[in-house]
Design a protein that fits this description.
The radius of gyration is 25 Å and the shape is elongated. The protein has about 170 residues and is mainly α. The chain folds into 2 domains: about 70 residues, no CATH class; about 90 residues, no CATH class. Helix 2 crosses helix 5 and helix 6 packs antiparallel against helix 7.
């Protein structure tokens, strides 16, 4: 008899049992979300409160904290939270501000790469009007005004792409 088929007595197959064993239950998923949320942003502030809300013991939470599946889920969700577009934009803005205030070419280059402008150099000018200009001169030779113009064009391009994506989504459903 195949492992995928149901056993004669209506018992779950080995495959179903194994899949169930790997999945986190709803309480474990709630714990994962709580752990991946920065402490300052948590509605439930303490582990004791969390145990009360979930109806589990401190021992259960301790066991979950040692479970490799739970640890991996916390890591994954933490990374997802870290990739919040608002946070990324704040970091890009900070790098840009340092590049501009200190006239630091390294920070400017990091910003250009992170914002995707540097990747445009090898592409056609229809994607970014200033790419032809940028290919002809080095970033080190650019004035602050020129760097500001590149930043504004990149932000405009990103906004336009976001607006197009939103329009597509609203048209599709």
């Amino acid at each position: 008899m195949s492992v995928v088929q149901k056993n004669a007595g209506g018992r779950p197959t080995k495959e179903v049992v194994e899949k169930k064993r790997r999945e986190l239950n709803s309480r474990q998923r709630a714990y994962v979300v709580w752990m991946a949320t920065p402490p300052a942003e948590r509605e439930i502030k303490t582990q004791t409160e969390l145990c009360e809300v979930l109806g589990v013991s401190h021992q259960a939470v301790w066991q979950w904290s040692k479970d490799a599946r739970v640890q991996e889920a916390v890591r994954f969700l933490t990374l997802q939270n870290a990739a919040d577009p608002k946070k990324i934009q704040m970091i890009l803005d900070m790098i840009f501000d340092v590049a501009m205030s200190k006239q630091d070419v390294r920070h400017a280059e990091v910003w250009l790469k992170a914002s995707g402008v540097m990747g445009q150099f090898g592409r056609g000018s229809d994607l970014l009007d200033v790419s032809a200009e940028l290919e002809q001169e080095s970033i080190a030779d650019m004035t602050l005004e020129e760097l500001q113009r590149v930043r504004e064009l990149a932000l405009a391009e990103r906004s336009e792409a976001a607006a197009i994506e939103m329009a597509k989504r609203s048209m599709n459903g």
